[in-house]
Amino acid sequence: MRYEKLGMSELNVSRICMGCMGFGDASNGQHSWTIDEEHSREIIRRGLELGVNFFDTAIGYQNGTSEQYLGRALKDFTSRDKVVVATKFLPRTNEEIEAGITGQQHIERMLNKSLENLGMDYVDLYIYHMWDHRTPIYDILDGLNRMVKAGKVRYVGISNCFAYQLAKANALAEKEGFAKFVSVQSHYIAMTPYSSLAGGRLSKHPGETSKRLEEDDYARLKYDATAGQDNVIIQRAAELAERRGVSMTEISLAWLLTKVTAPVVGATKLSHIEGAAKAVELELSEDEIHYLEEPYIPHRLVGVMAQNTAASSGESHVWTTGKQKI
Q: How far, in Å, CA of 321 to CA of 310, rounded?
């Protein structure tokens, strides 16, 4: 495994970040394809053995059970100071706004619940999961800064934002002396991009399937409309994998690793994290990189970035905290 500093922070992270959205109680959340605690622990343990030290979860993943599975596994298999743990918080709900809960109060409440779920005193990276159109950015930054000063958060990051939003936020943070966002996690390309294998599509030959491919309606919403265009690249990844004698996962992530710091790679089987770790050692030639990129056609925004607008901010979010008491 190789390691790199995350942005301007002092966090030394593995080039593969284990995405934990696939861990959690399948009967308690958005997804029906997530894996139980026993299998989650096996994958987390294997990741640690392979040198993965960077783990990404969220309070909204399977109503907090992803955080719980991760926290218990890390407690049993490693020491806290050897891993970098990131989790995320959601925008204020309609109920909180009606009750007069401020952005600062909301962040503290969300963080305290995440820390309870994780069984930890602090998180290394606390991520603003999606832009809160109904809460002033000053309140968000102030709330995060208070948590940094309290020792509950080491650094703050942001996800699912436009470049102008990040620039606006960090300019205000600098002006006010608040902690600035040190990382960006967005769809596919960012410092720590999510959906790094397009929900498994970049790791499977045509005709291959999985429980997630069959049941993940949200991923189909993101990718089905461009399947024809995307399959051209998927076929090229399969061709290069066969030529190099490696997996499609290794080819796809080796390409992405030339662009980003640490892709967030989900794993619901041991082979998933093993393939991801191997990708760190695979170097593609300039010709191979060009071959993968050449047929790409720009896509419209999908998922959270397309759905989380000011006009829709009062509606149900993609993610929720479910029945957790916050």
A: 21
DSSP class of residue 35? B
122 is catalytic: no
- The span from the CA of 150 to the CA of 152, in Å, is 6
Catalytic residue among 61, 126, 128, 194: 61
How buried is 164 (Cβ within 10 angstroms: 0-12 exposed, 13-18 middle, 19+ buried)? Answer: exposed
**Phi and psi torsions of 193, nearest 5°:** -70, 140
What are the residue ranges spanned by the domains of the chain?
3-201+259-282
Pairing of strands 153-159, 54-56: unpaired
Q: Where are the alpha helices (DSSP H) in 3-102?
A: 37-49, 65-77, 94-99
> Which pLDDT tens digit goes with each residue over 104-126?
999 999 999 999 999 999 999 99
Neighbour-count burial of 70, counting CB atoms closer than 10 A to its CB (0-12 exposed, 13-18 middle, 19+ buried): buried
d(C-alpha 326, C-alpha 324), whole Å:
6
| Model-wide pTM > 0.85 | yes
- Report, at the CATH architecture level, how domain 3-201+259-282 is classified: Alpha-Beta Barrel (3.20)
Residue in the block written with tokens 């929900």: 199
- Taking residue 315's Cβ as centre, other Cβ atoms within 10 Å add up to 10
